[in-house]
Amino acid sequence: MKEPSKLKRTSLVTTFLFCALLSLAASAKVQDTPPKEEGSFRSPELVELVKLDRMLRLDIRYATKNSFVGRPVYPSARAFLQRPAAEALVRASRTLRKQGFGLTVFDGYRPWHVTRLFWELTPADKKQFVADPARGSRHNRGCAVDLTLYDLRTRKQVSMPGEYDEMTERSHINYAGGTAEQRRLRDLLRAAMEAEGFAVYEPEWWHYDYKDWRLYPILNLSFSEIVAGGMKAKGKRL
Ligand SMILES: [Zn+2]
Q1: I need a surface site. Which of 11, 69, 78, 83 has the fewest CB within 10 A?
Q2: Which residues constitute the domain of residue 134?
Q3: CATH code for the domain of 137
Q4: What is residue 22's predicted lDDT score, i.e. its pLDDT?
Q5: What angle do CA 193, 230, 75 make, to 5 degrees?
Q6: How confident is the model over 113-156, as pLDDT tens digits?
Q7: pLDDT of 230
Q8: Alpha carbon distances (Å) from 175 to 106, 182, 208
């Protein structure tokens, strides 16, 4: 076999270096700080949901080992939303109460650094289930909520067509499998939320964005900073 010419060798080395750079870029750590956004935003007013409505229940999986992360990522089981979104959620809760159901919240406001962690932990083929930290999540703006229904008589969460945070097609809002009753409950939750200005994220039956999410900045405050910063709910009930 002929030895590669000097030119050929040079181009081989260049190709190798280029590929090495590409793979380095692909494996590079994502940014350390939230993305900077242009424009003006509303001042955040994150309120603690259970302070507005005692019927709301919490099942904050990210404060436990019982999530796809496998360890707690929140120091406490709390849920916050921007006030208009929180008040809309309370109205949805009241509507559902008349039909025999309450709302169980899995997650509300999420600090940006947690979104970055989720991104890093999620394999490439499942990334549609997590927000890209380069763009932030609507949870980071305090305008997205993950939730399900519970039965007011039994106090138990209802059975939906798929589990919370399940990264399969069963999570899609239009998934046609499961039982008729599971689909009815999923659609009941959707109707109550949509009536109050929330839109479902179609790949996830449990995730709802409040209509004004664009008006709020991406935040990276911890729960304790929210409370210490005076954004604590003042106990006002609707
Ligand atoms: Zn969500």
Answers
A1: 11
A2: 41-231
A3: 3.30.1380.10
A4: 46
A5: 70
A6: 999 999 999 999 999 889 999 999 999 999 999 999 999 999 99
A7: 59
A8: 21, 11, 17
Q: Count up the domains in the chain and report the number.
A: 1
Predicted pLDDT of residue 5: 52
The catalytic position among 45, 166, 204, 225 is 204
CA distance 226 to 231: 6
Query: 206 alpha carbon to ligand 1 midpoint, in Å?
Result: 7
Which residues of the chain register pLDDT less than 50?
1-4, 16, 19-27, 231-238
Tokens of 161: 């067509």
Q: Does residue 24 form part of some domain?
A: no
Asked whether residue 16 is assigned to any structural domain, the reply reads: no
In this predicted structure, what is the pLDDT of residue 128? 86
Q: Which residues lie at CB < 5 A from ion ligand 1? A: 146, 207
The three-class DSSP label of residue 78 is coil
56 falls within a domain: yes
Distance 207 CA to ligand 1 centre (A): 4
The Å distance, Cα 116 to ligand 1 centre, comes to: 14
What distance in angstroms lies between residue 17's CA and the mean position of ligand 1's atoms?
A: 40
Residues near 158 by Cβ (< 8 Å), separated by ≥ 6? 101, 148, 149, 150, 151, 182, 185
Q: How far is the CA of 208 from the centre of ligand 1 (A)?
A: 7
181 is catalytic: no
Answer yes or no: is 22 within a domain: no
